[in-house]
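REQUEST ID: PR-0412
SUBMITTED BY: lab tech R.K.
PRIORITY: routine
TASK: structure prediction, single protein chain
INPUT:
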Amino acid sequence: MDQFTAPPYPRVADAPAFARGKRRVLGWAVALLASSLAALSGLLTLWLIGYETGLVPFLAGLVIAVLPVPVYLTLVLWLDRYESEPAWLLATSFFWGALVAVFFAIVVNSLGVLVVQSAFGETAGDFYGMVISAPLVEETAKALALFALFLWKRDEFDGVLDGIVYAAMVGLGFAMTENVKYYAEAVSQQNAVGVFVVRGLFSPFAHPLFTSMTGIGLGLAAHSRSRAARFLLPPLGLAGAVALHAAWNASAFLTGATENGMIMLASYFVVMVPAFVALLFVVLFALRREGRILREQLRADCDGGLFTHDEYLRLCSLRARAGASLGALTGRGLGAWRERRRLHRAASELAFQRHRLARGVAARDGRDREREAAYVRQIQEILRGK
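STATUS: complete
OUTPUT:
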């Protein structure tokens, strides 16, 4: 194993230290400004909710909305097991939904409803707010984060599964803050149990499900070689998110207007459940595809002696990866578990980097061979340290 050496890839000259420092300072300044604006918009959103509902209902709604979130996040992160996304990108996606997208949606939706109500009456305003404005504005606000990741962090947006994970993070953040409002109102009206059953038990993944349509569109575009597909699939995914959201909200509007709960129940089993099941099949298909990519792209490294055949089999199987991680944790402790996780991530990054280049969906920018060599060296270092 130690005899394996990466090909002598040419190194690209580093940028001058002053230029690197300047870019770093500019990046930190932009990040600080963006974080401050996001925090401010989130605080304004929570203040508006608390002002409308009162302090005690607001605090109760906040607790009820936040408590189940770690469980939902764990379930979403469990999906992305071949190549875990960077924690800071996942956190950015979540807080975009929880802080920025919600604020944007509340402002735009509220103004639109007021205009329509003043012109056409309260019923028309309610219909516009629930069935037209909310799906369009909310899904667009959530999608902005996904489009930003797709355009500026393409190396972390490898396909459909990444699109679903990032979309689910944005949707969970949005749903958490939105639920604070609904739960607080329910507490003030002494209907907290009923609202929690509907939103917390029957449809906790509604927003992640809606926004996953956008994520799927972007994920398909990410590994498509067709320029037309890369252009059309993202807006089609967003349109699917808006349509699914509108269908669900329409059933809620009709239920309230007719006082017939069977309408929403029928929508739940005819629209939401099949859509969720279909999403799970998409996830399973995407996981199988990623496993196939690893087997294809890492075979040469196994033959070349970078790792043994047994290690190759472990790296290309979710079950074997889980077993190896658990064995490292129980046998050698947390440090060994972290090294095993680093090995899994480096192998996945290496395979997906090669796959993007092989399909021509990533441009050869003069640094691709250096990146590949860096992953190989990282794998060597981890394996030698075992």
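NOTES: Residues 261-304 form the longest helix (44 residues).
REVIEWED BY: pending
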